[in-house]
């Protein structure tokens, strides 16, 4: 559910911010906060050197070796540590009423912050649907969905913060967060894994180094993203499944069986996953629809003959 602008007309986030963690997400958030004029007073990381490096980039921020001391300096404390470290870190800190604490994990809600809630602090989850790996750039937050789990008034403050970063807040039922995060992992990490495999095959076929193979794929990937952006689903689906071209798919499967046998069945599964989109695309083309049914049957039979249960 999108948080309507009217539900949080002017509810600025409590300030200053303390960042606990100085990795990819903390750095991306810290740099974006600084660009948005939201003060970060304290940064902590297990390795104080890492906290120092981030604090140096944030006007007015100090690095701390002790997470308790860092948290004390924040009206809003962000626990930007790996998901499994959030609850233990929260439990070792001292919280006070009026303070707010959020984590950045996608698959969990604010239940990880129970010790802070018991002490009277407001708790929330603030997950950006974005990947932060390279150089931090505030632009990386523009248009990004931010899944929020918090009660008022913190929910409205976090929505304000998201908008201030150029992002788009939405509320997410904590029970739905695992599925939500699985979707993010499929789209982001799954794509990287698919490109990794595709680059390996392209490299083998054309005698290219991996980096070169990836470079050759980038225009293709940009084209896919542009199609998704401009045409949406199902029209962004092109290729032999969309064309119900069984002969070409059979050639792919055969080539994969030679080059990387485990991939021939995975590839057929991928083709099966494309079928609903292909059918949707062909909704007013009975001939294409009939060809897609033949393709669907062939794919199912091929899987059965390999002993893959359906
Ligand atoms: N990176 C992304 O693209 C992204 C996107 C959305 C959400 N998130 C969320 O952001 C949070 C942080 O992820 P990240 O990618 O920034 O992680 P990261 O780059 O690995 O950084 C982790 C930070 O936490 C510290 N840390 C590591 N293990 C710890 C432990 N056991 N106890 C306490 N501190 C520990 C690290 O300290 P030292 O390095 O000093 O040891 C570092 O400061 C996660 O909840 C993640 O789900 C990440």
State the order of secondary-structure elements, H for helix, E for strand.
Answer: EHEHEHEHEHEEHEHHHHH
Runs with pLDDT <50, length 5+? 2-8
CATH topology of the largest domain: Rossmann fold
How many helical elements? Answer: 11
Largest sheet: 8 strands, mixed
Number of domains: 2
As laid out across the biggest beta sheet, the strand order is 3-2-1-4-5-6-7-8
CATH architecture title of the largest domain:
3-Layer(aba) Sandwich
Portion in strands: 5-15%
Q: What class do helices, strands and sheet pairing give?
A: alpha/beta
Global Rg: 24 Å
Mean pLDDT: 95
Structure overview:
The chain is an alpha/beta fold. It contains 11 helices and 8 strands. Strands 3-2-1-4-5-6-7-8 form an 8-stranded mixed beta sheet, with helices on both faces. Strand 5, helix 5 and strand 6 form a beta-alpha-beta unit. Helix 7 packs across helix 8 (210-230) and helix 9 packs antiparallel against helix 10 (261-281). The longest helix has 30 residues, at 177-206. The protein is elongated and about 65 Å long.
What is the gist of this entry?
By secondary structure, the protein is an alpha/beta fold.
Entry keywords:
310 residues; alpha/beta; single chain; 2 domains; Rossmann fold; 11 helices; binds NADP nicotinamide-adenine-dinucleotide phosphate
């Amino acid at each position: 559910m999108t948080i309507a602008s009217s539900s949080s007309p002017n509810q600025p986030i409590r300030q200053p911010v303390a960042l606990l963690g100085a990795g990819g997400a903390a750095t991306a958030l810290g740099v974006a906060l600084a660009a948005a004029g939201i003060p970060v007073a304290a940064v902590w990381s297990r390795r104080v050197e890492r906290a120092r490096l981030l604090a140096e980039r944030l006007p007015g921020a100090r690095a701390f070796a002790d997470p308790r001391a860092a948290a004390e300096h924040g009206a809003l404390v962000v626990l930007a540590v790996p998901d499994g470290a959030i609850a233990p870190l929260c439990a070792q800190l001292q919280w006070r009423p009026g303070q707010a604490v959020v984590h950045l994990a996608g698959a969990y809600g604010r239940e990880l912050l129970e010790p802070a809630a018991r002490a009277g602090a407001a708790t929330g989850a603030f997950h950006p649907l974005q990947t932060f790996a390279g150089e931090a750039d505030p632009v990386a937050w523009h248009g990004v969905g931010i899944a929020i789990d918090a009660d008022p008034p913190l929910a409205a403050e976090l929505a304000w913060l998201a908008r201030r970063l150029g992002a788009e807040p939405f509320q997410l039922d904590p029970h739905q967060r695992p599925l939500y995060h699985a979707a993010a992992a499929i789209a982001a990490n799954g794509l990287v894994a698919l490109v990794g495999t595709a680059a390996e095959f392209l490299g083998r076929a054309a005698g290219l180094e991996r980096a070169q193979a990836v470079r050759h794929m980038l225009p293709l990937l940009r084209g896919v993203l542009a199609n998704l952006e401009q045409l949406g689903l199902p029209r962004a689906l092109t290729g032999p499944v969309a064309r119900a071209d069984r002969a070409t798919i059979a050639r792919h499967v055969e080539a994969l069986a030679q080059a990387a046998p485990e991939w021939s069945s995975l590839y057929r599964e991928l083709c099966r996953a494309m079928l609903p989109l292909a059918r949707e695309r062909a909704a007013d083309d009975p001939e294409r629809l009939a060809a897609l049914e033949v393709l669907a049957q062939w794919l199912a039979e091929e899987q059965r003959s390999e002993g893959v249960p359906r």
